[in-house]
Amino acid sequence: xxxxxxxxxxxxxIVRESIRDWLKDAGYxxxxxxxxxxxxxxxxxxxxxxxxxxxxxxxQTGITVLKEVKAQRPWIKSIxxxxxPSAETTAEATRLxxxxxxxxxxxxxxxxxxxxxxxxxxxxxxxxxxxxxxxxKPPVVEVVEVKKSLVITKDSLRFMVESLAKEMExxxxxxxxxxxxxxxxxSFEELCLDYDVTVMPPTKYLLPAxxxxxxxxxGDESKIEPVTDASPRxxxxxxxxxxxxxxxxxxxxxxxxxxxxYIARRQNTIIIGxxxxxxxxxxxxPSMGTHLTETGFDLLLTDIGADYVxxxxxxxxAELLTKCAQVREPTGDEIAKQKEVRDxxxxxxxxxxxxxxxxxxxxxxxxxxxPYWESRSSSCLSCGSCVMVCPTxxxxxxxxxxxxNLKAGERxxxxxxxxxxxxxxxxxxxxxxxxxxSRFRHRIYRKGKYxxxxxxxxxxVGCGRCATACLADNxxxxxxxxxxxxxxxxxxxxxxxxxxxRPETELYAPRPAELVKIKExxxxxxxxxxxxxxxKALGHWPGQxxxxxxxxxxxxxxxxxxxxxxxxxxxxxIRNVGDVTNALHNLEKGATVGIRGPFGNGFPLEALEGKDVxxxxxxxxxxxxxxxxxxxxxxxxxxxxxxxxxxxxxxxERLFLDxxxxxxxxxxxxxxxxxxxxxxxxQGNVGVITTLIPKVQIDPGKTIAVVVGPPIMYxxxxxxxxxxxxxDENIILSLERRMKCGVGKCGHCQINGVxxxxxxxxxxxxxxxxLREAV
Amino acid sequence: xxxxxxxFDFTGCEGCQLDAxxxxxEELIDLLNAVDIVxxxxxxxxxxxxxxxxxxxxxxxxxxxxxxxxxxxxxxxxIVALGTCACIGGINCLKNHLPMEEALRIVYGEDAKxxxxxxxxxxxxxxxxxxxxxxxxxxxxxLIKVIKALLLGKKPDIPNYPVCVECKMAGNVCVFERGMxxxxxxxxxxxxxxxxxxxxxxxxxxxxVDDPNIDSEKDILQKYGLTVEQVVEKFKIYNxxxxxxx
Lengths: 775, 246
What we know:
The structure holds two protein chains of two kinds. Chain A folds into five domains: 5-121, Rossmann fold (3-Layer(aba) Sandwich), CATH 3.40.50.2300; 149-346, no CATH class; 357-500, no CATH class; 511-599, Translation factors (Elongation Factor Tu (Ef-tu), domain 3); 605-734, Nucleotide-binding domain of ferredoxin-NADP reductase (FNR) module (Rossmann fold). Helix content of chain A is 29%, strand content 24%. Chain A contains 24 helices and 32 strands. In chain A, strands 8-7-11-12-13-14-6-15 form an eight-stranded mixed β-sheet. Chain A has a seven-stranded mixed β-sheet with strand order 27-26-25-24-28-29-32, sandwiched between helices. Chain A has a six-stranded antiparallel β-sheet with strand order 21-20-23-18-19-22. The model of chain A is unreliable at 123-139 and 486-495 (pLDDT under 50). Chain B is of the alpha/beta class. Chain B contains ten helices and five strands; from the N terminus they run E-H-H-E-E-H-E-H-H-E-H-H-H-H-H. Chain B has a five-stranded parallel β-sheet with strand order 2-1-3-4-5, with helices on both faces. In chain B, helix 3 (63-75) links the parallel strand 3 and strand 4 (78-82). The A-B interface holds A 176-179, 181-183, 199-200, 204, 209-210, 378-385, 388-389, 399, 401-406, 415, 417, 420-422, 436, 469, 471-472, 552-554, 579, 582-583, 586 and B 27, 30-31, 33-34, 144-145, 147-148, 151-155, 157, 160-162, 164-165, 168-174, 176-178, 184-186, 209-213, 215-217, 219-220.
């Protein structure tokens, strides 16, 4: 018999293998058995000095094994381990010769010391032990509850992390080039729990830099499949400010339009936080109220010296502790120590906001035209570093990648950021935030105002990463907030139970639609008629839009040109300006496209009832407006006068000629038309569209004007309507923006704090008066 | 009908063409199923003067190259500049800082009289160029991306943001925080920050973004200890032609 040979008998692989690994590392000869039967067989063949024995085993119990061992191999010293201690089994095991008793989870140090003591005692003690004393243990917590603070030893923490690593990917903070990064942890030694701040935040594990949303096949066997990743993962050592950032992302991705990809990751992520006791010199977390957190984690550690206080934040955290860790109630001293280390950490922050954070939104609202934005942004590189390192940034772009066979491919989403040059650029070439200063200002408004107003939580957690990453030294939000300086109350968002949110799995997956009719309007514009292949109606309101996909090319927002009063099909009038519209123009009857939506608010039909409606369409503004005109004429008796003013640049660019002709003859609608430049064929009005307005009789008390046209047209038309005393509430406009996702997440369509795809595209002029980026 | 593709080399090391061959076996077969390669000096000796897509490699540094490139422009439906020299002039343009006679003498010594040379320039300084596959060497995946976009009839999706974006996505610790300096903040991404990820810094081989904030980048390089001359040298390597060094 080898003097240091140990047999471990336990049916739980995690326990068996981890004890085996510790003991091997400590120099013991170790064998393992899963069942009582297997253990007895091994004992038949080979002798052991010590047996570590679980009581509850499938088949023969630990007690039976003990009886057999006592009868046949009385010299083997048995140590009992169990998760279910009871007085009866303790007494029974002791009677059968067990020399000690440990309660699971077992701390490696305790077990090793016990084995060593047992081995040392061999030969010095009489072989028959009469009375065995059970060693005193710290009070072990058996029922772990949410919100409870407990104490865990560093060894037990190691055991818990290593146990987790056997079941899932464990990521945590490591040192790299003198900085700290989140990465996969292969051993507990690599894990750093006393870092200041990481280069990139841990949110990359919930919203990765690049991920696949859909896999598709184009062509005859076309197929679209949403893709999500639900691999389990534990993140160990997240600071409270980053936990607060994750709570914001939960708000963004798990409330309206629940995001399937985010939710799959979130529901399979265990968050083990750690209090930040050595803050980064750029951090101002206390000013943002994020230096401590009571929510958002499964477990949270506080380093109190010898051990950690561990706070349970969720059922998941409680289960994990029950399964893999030995914890005990904290002493009064330990609770006092936790407060002491937290208070001491608070004194280490060097930076702070000079106004209460509640005042920031109002302060920003009043500073829109401050020269600060222009002057401070002059050195901005538009390099995106500030948004890439930000834990609360979540804007993204979506693009298709296809294989060389051009058939199969993937639709990917990738981080994007509002400070990057092309973020708000649309296919026509218009860039709605083209200058550095407006992008610079927009980012700071998101962080201090827009996100708060939209989601109830600040878009800045005060981590200071942007200030560290910015080479031009101008991205610091703290500096921006302090440089301007006001108020609004933060609404307290209700706590949400993450596991109960149901993702909308088809959120990004277009529905197939068949192209049933094509009609050319001008050489660059066609009207397409589609029917959804699932046989359902599109279910839209006039003024809404859809996202149209040509798989492999991409997706584009297109307003709906037909009234919902048409059964079964819908029409999209499209100018050929970008990749997707070009691909659509090349399609033939019978082709399949993808449709998502309808999205957006549409025209306010109820508000129009009983009123005189003045339609003003400039150029392809007629495309969306046509849906409302058709709808109004189909419900003619519900409205007062219907007046349509239409302007095209030239006679050749007039649209829907048949309908224009019909309207000009119809008693249901008063129709006036003009072209900017006439030619020899043109007999009608010449001049820009505003020249038509003085020709129309208007009752300002009962007229609602619905205006759709290119951005440049709005300012002039509004001016002309104001001359006719139409109030701002009765001037309705539909705005174009870069609506990439349609579901209020990607950020591209934002006008100040408003998402055009959600609150728009239709606005009253009264609403737009507060949106400085709008017109 | 598969589009016919031709590769033409001008002044350069022909590394871009070599790199284009650096495809996995399966990818190469897929590529050959998608296009007909009719002209490719590094691969085949047969030549054909009928092609749709011409890849131009190297910069233009002799009078004779101007007329040769113009002929290619007349023939090809699409011209793609392949690699740094063709896209932005590249390191060949370093000689533009010298009088041409002196450049000839340094390179050819007594034989200089047998050669002619003009200041080096990118392909689009001579003829209109439709698309660009940037980099020294170009990223093979980007070459394939451009070919796929041409086949699909869409604009290739080449980033117009700086290397910093991809560098952060890669999780790198900033070069400036590691005691070095870098051109990443003004240089066009698309390389996944490969040099920084491999422990170096960005040299600017993909050229500048559309609207680079050169003044701010110069200030930063000086703040991190470079002299004005060193800053200029840093830009010169690949970006002499972009005039940022003036």
